[in-house]
Every structure is written in C-alpha cells, then in structure tokens.
C-alpha cells in the first residue's frame, strides 16, 4: 500500500509520529522546558497582570526563578525534588513485586490461562475496563495495567503496542469514568463545594455527585476505546516491527500439569491474602480506616498502602509459583527477579529526575496558575450561553491539562471562578464539575508533561526499540480527540434530558 492510498487519518498519525520522534530525548526535552520556564519567569516577574491568586486572595505575581534566592533554593531542593517525587516511589515499589512474579513465570502462566478462556475479540474491551476500574487504586493502573495490556495483546498474537494504547486509554484517558467510586470523587467534590459556597454558604454536595454520569461514561469510554483500538490504532501499528527482547514474554502454548498446579496454589495464596485484607478492613475500629471511619479517603491508611499492597499481591503468588515450579530455590533467585526488573528502569529514573526539577520550577514560578486564571477570566468575559460555556470549560480544561497535570490542583484554581459563574447561569456545581472532569481526562494521554507519560514510552520500547514520544502521541491522539468530542456530547445529552449526574446535594443550589 502506498502512502497516498492510506486513509487520511493514518497519514496524519504517521506525520505526528515522525514529527514527534524528531523531538529531543524526553530527558533533554524537560531540561529545555525548565530553561524556558526560568527565562519566562524572569521576563514576566515584573509584569502586573491584574489577577488574583485564588489560593491566597493576593495579587498574582510571577516569581523570578533566576534570582539568587530562587536558584540557591532550587539547588538545595534538587535531591528532595527527585527523591520525594510521587511517581518514582509508586513505580519502583510496584515493579519490585511485579519483577518477582514475572521472573518466576507466574504472570506468564496466568496470562496463558486467561487467554485460554477469553476470546481475542474481547481482549480490547476487557483491557480498557480493567484500566478504568484501576482508578480505585489511585495510580496503580499506570504501573500494573498498562504494561500488562501489552503482554496480553502479544500473547494473543496481536500488536502489543495496541494493548498498551488500550490500557493507557482506560487508565488515563478514561480517568473520570468508573463503575466503582474512588478517592478522586470526594476530593473534587470538596473543591466544588467550596466554590459553590461562595454563592450559597449552606450548600453541601454529595461526594458521589457525579457517580451516575461517571458510571455511564465508563460504558461510553469502553465502546469508543474498543472501536479506536481495533479500527484506527492497531491497523496503523502494522508498520511498527517488534525488535525488542521478547524472549521472556508469554506465548499461547497450553499450560503443563506442573504449571497448572503451581498456578492453582499461587492463586490460592493470593485469595487468602485478599480475604485477610477484607476481614481486617471490615471492622469499624480497623487500623486501615481513617479517623472518620472511611476506607476511601486520601487519609485512610488503606489508600496510603495501595502500592505496597500491589507489591505483596504480586510478590506472594510469584514466590509460591516459583517455589513449586522450581524456578525459585534460594533467596538469591527472587532477589534476582527484583534486580532484573530494576535494571530495566534506569532510563525511566533519568527522565524522572529532570521531570521532577521541571515541575518544581514550573510550580514555583506561578506560570501555570497565571495560565489557568487568565483562561478562566477570558471565558467568563465572553458571557456565552450555558451549553457553549460548558463546552468552553471542557476545552479550556483540556488545554490547561497539557501544562498542569494535577487534577486537584487545576480544579482548586478553576472552581472558585467556574462554579459561581455557572450558578449565576442556572447551571449546577455538579454539572460544572462533570465538565471539568471530561476536559481533565481526555488530554491526559497526549501530554509528555504528565509524569507517567515517559513510563508508557518505556513500556513501548520493550517491544519497539525506536518508539518515542511521537509514537505514543500518534497512538493516543485518536483516543484524545474522539473522547473529548463524544464525551462532551454525552454530557450535553445528560443535561438536556435533565438526567441526574449523581447523588443530589443536601441543599438547594441557589440562595
């Protein structure tokens, strides 16, 4: 097939991949971005923007990151910026347990057993659905579901990068779609409620004020992701030949009797561990609960322990499987599994070091806050009709998300502006929050500034060594664009039909 005989969409995605892969190495890219932040903060530090910082109520100023005090502070915090950077610990701790499970053959055997009972045509929606549900475990999906998506597709004879794309779309692109309530729900609700109380101090929103919409959205995201993966992304990937080290990846060979025995015992051990966890969390006085008795709030020890629990979830069955199968005979063997997993993370750690420094400098400069506040003020000044304004909020949020990754940080900046503004138009805080969640989720998967984006690039390079930012961006762009458009229309349907977005507030919205 010649280039001109390919569909237009495929040609455009090929261009995105080529141009994207011509960008500097991700580590060098973040060095360049940090220098740009320094220069912009210096150039804009004396400018009066006539804007108020919603966090402090004071005039918003850009902090010069090239000043003597700022630079000495930057160097004094360089080590802690990296060592305390949240994605680093999350990834490395989880990878230790996964490394043992992979080294022993547990993951290989489990996937082969799964392939024996699951049709290939169901793999895509299954991977996306698992990615969506993984939000309940905070960031676990990035280090667990996404790499497994590639392994599952490879084991089924499909292109592994398509599996990574499907999983990434579920985990990150569908971040605000979930069957199961998660800690993000009360976090965003609290920020929305604070914004709504500017208009009516008696408003109390339900933590699940978007639950009906997010649950229904999960069906939308699974359906759209299924179509995009199978009809757009995977056909494009036929030209990306697999040239990585695939020697330890699973095949479709039937399990041998000793493998079935080891798998049964390892799953039995896992089941016992899960039962013990459930029992230990069931008591009101459980140490896993927060001071208010909640299991799902950010302060609950259970939520703080998600990554260590994932570590054990793979370590225990990995050890049991390896011992029974004979792969693990001494302590050196399972330590070798951890070491091998860590040896593959060197490139990721280099990238994370420079990302951590960039994010620190960007946050200290206040450039992201200025972008968010000015964008929101411009949208408010347009005084557009309700439906158009909601669409504008989604688009603006998606754009800001390319530069400011944290969902809570962005909403803390935007909610005090958007929520009261929309309430004056007769639009509920629940709807404002739902619009924000769509914009925040849809562009997660196309921004290299998202801390886990380079990790997904590393996962891709396991199969295609030449994969880079352009490869991943080209894979994920169709998901981002289609999710953004279809999800916005879906919200408009909810609104126009008067369907409840979730559990209702305790008070009327308007004074």
UniProtKB/TrEMBL annotation:
The UniProt transmembrane annotation reads: 27-45, 85-107, 127-154, 211-229, 262-283, 303-324, 345-362, 382-404, 411-429, 441-460, 472-497
Q: What is this protein called?
A: AbgT family transporter
Q: Which Pfam families match?
A: ABG_transport
Annotated GO MF terms: secondary active p-aminobenzoyl-glutamate transmembrane transporter activity
Task: Please provide the record's keywords in A-Z order.
Answer: Membrane, Transmembrane, Transmembrane helix
GO BP terms in the entry:
p-aminobenzoyl-glutamate transmembrane transport
Q: Does the keyword Transmembrane helix apply?
A: yes
- What's the domain of life for this entry? Bacteria
